[in-house]
Amino acid sequence: MTKLLLLFTFVPLLELFLLIEVGRRVGTLPTVLLVVSTGFVGVLLARAQGFLVLTRIAHNLREGDLPGEELLNGVLVLIGAAFLLTPGLITDTAGFLLLIPQTRHTARVYIYRKLKKALEDGTLRMFRR
Predict the structure, then answer these.
(1) Distance (Å, rounded) from C-alpha 89 to C-alpha 64?
(2) How much is the average pLDDT of 74-87?
(3) Residue 9 sits in which domain range?
(4) What is the pLDDT at residue 110?
(5) Which of 35, 60, 98, 124 could be cross-linked to 67 through a Cys-Cys bond (beta carbons 3.0 to 4.6 Å apart)?
(6) CA 6 to chain CA mean position, Å
(7) Does 129 fall in a domain?
């Protein structure tokens, strides 16, 4: 809970500081255009990657395979798109990194290892209702 509180406090403050500094150095209009253009390009990229992930999920299902890896890809694309819709340069960078297949692969491997370790340690439990 403390980590989330710090995250939701620290990241917006850092974003605000960075936007003020960039605006001070290059001007208000270029800074606003930068934020708007990264959001626009990000939405286009998220849409393309989202369709690609959905296509792979459908292919896996047609082949009779479970699409576990592609589902995680889909979640990461969704998180990346949400980051891009959030105004700021840090969140835009994180969003773009989650939309690029190579860096998304790195994030997916990291998350998979963390989930596997948590399941093995017993710190993550799955419940059925």
Answers:
(1) 41
(2) 89
(3) 2-121
(4) 92
(5) 60
(6) 19
(7) no
